[in-house]
């Protein structure tokens, strides 16, 4: 309890320490989930993350283009409004490795991520949120097209 | 954001206006209310009167099946109560095109648009003129002056606000030069959905506010969301586009908080995207739309969490002027009238000042433009989901001149029509081809790759969710026959690919001619030279055999009505 309060009040300091590389965040101390990152399919990745029973969640907001301007760098912003969000993972159906990244949030951190993902082809991108040990996900299709012919 | 019952009277009034065949009846457009918005869009640089055949194939998928704008021919007339065989029926449909075009004459032309706009403005003091973009591209003179002739014409016309799409194909620097030069303080260029790629900063103002008879009106710009995908990315290397619904909603809230009583989105999304957007965004009074070139005679009311939003689409090529009258009292829209008024050049005398301007900007090029190349024995048109006759001539030219078995031509929706017996001039060819990336390329492609390309383009047209559509029509294909099932899923729409009587071999490589590559550094003869070579060689163009795909699952579709 004492520790929890410290983290809440001191999250700015904590973030700075993490950024500077002086302190590992709680979750980064967890072992690198090799099996999840090497998974070829969504199913395998979910299993490796322990998220087989994830349910669809309405409180996950994905902001990303419907059609990518460049599949190699697709900007994506994800915000979780689920209380007690611990981590956010990004997965793409059609990528050779399904899991693109996992972001962990020390208590008190705003669970929002802005990053870029690489998409091999048109794919559903799933955002998996862990909160209170439970998993919820949201999905958005991002199209990677050959281009031309519009207008 | 419309008060209840605001739509009353629209259809009847629209019918009366459209039914008249004399000048006085046809152009009787009595004003209503105190806020007046005039809308032109997708003019495609057509300074002179021309003909534009509306499509006989405009299929809607998913929820859009049979819903405006996916109505053609008789189905469109029935839906909007337009009597067959009238001037209005000719304006809005392809029916009996050749004969009706001869009876009613040409449409559009900036001198005639100017006369109509002046009349509408005289009746509506304080009216704002909004231009939805695709104005600077589509003619030889626009290409040769890099948009300058159209900017000059729009300044003369009195455009107040514009957004864009093909404008960007002149390159970011040229767009800046025209906006910061002749347009400065006269035409506001707005686009909430164009940002810098590095820091996501606005490139253009997202909106402007104007006063119309004491009512504060905000006009938010929505440029074509997929320009760097549909057109060459390298022309606007530092700009990111996209639909950007979240920032639009924020902008609406900002302008409302700032006192705007009317909030209009001047949009180049395309009508399906606009209809979807109107159902999701709260606080827009109206979306005045373009891009998909749909001449839709009424405004569609769309319910959303904030109330209702009107959605229009204003046709193309200067053939129509949209008129939205709003009665705004006590911060509420109490009533409205919308009309999409066709511009019949014979009914509207040319405006002298605009006619002189058009003559002056064309003068240096007159002889070059008038060069006769061939005579056509059939109607030549482009618009439609699949090959039009003019595109057939283009793919035939590509195959013949480049001596290849397969040709692709982009599914553009701009391009004027010609009637049987017309001489095809260089200007007519340029009206189909005038772009800044015209190189003809011959690319070796495997059968598998060819199918993938056709599937990709078909998905951009027939994806069931509008936000995943780019607008434009199906790529025009020469040589190769295939079947197409628009409502199938991606990867399953295209089938039965054949070259002559042989199935296309997925593993074999075929040379494919095409133009308008979006890749940087594509080189080759410009498409207009290839078409010109073909036309001069042929001299007489007999009605070409249309290579349209065998369509599956479209029987009885209100968006499909092939001529007999």
Structural write-up:
The complex is a heterodimer of chains A (151) and B (564). Chain A is an alpha+beta fold and 151 residues long. Chain A has a single domain (32-142), classed as SoxY domain (Immunoglobulin-like), CATH 2.60.40. In chain A, 21% of the residues lie in helices and 34% in strands. Chain A is built from four helices and eight strands, in the order ααααββββββββ. In chain A, the strands form two sheets. Chain A has a five-stranded mixed β-sheet with strand order 1-8-7-4-5. In chain A, strands 2-3-6 form a three-stranded antiparallel β-sheet, with no helix packed on it. Chain A is globular. Chain B has 564 residues and is an alpha/beta fold. Chain B folds into two domains: 36-51 and 108-358, 4-Layer Sandwich (Purple Acid Phosphatase, chain A, domain 2); 371-551, 5'-Nucleotidase, C-terminal domain (5'-nucleotidase,  domain 2, Alpha-Beta Complex), CATH 3.90.780.10. Chain B has 18 helices and 25 strands. In chain B, the strands form six sheets. Chain B has a six-stranded mixed β-sheet. Chain B has a six-stranded mixed β-sheet with strand order 6-7-9-10-12-11, with helices on one face. In chain B, a hairpin with a 2-residue loop joins strand 13 (320-329) and strand 14 (332-342). In chain B, helix 8 runs antiparallel to helix 13, helix 15 (389-402) crosses helix 18 (527-538) and helix 16 (426-433) packs antiparallel against helix 18. Mean pLDDT of chain B is 94; it is low at 3-19. The interface between A and B is medium-sized, with 18 and 40 residues.
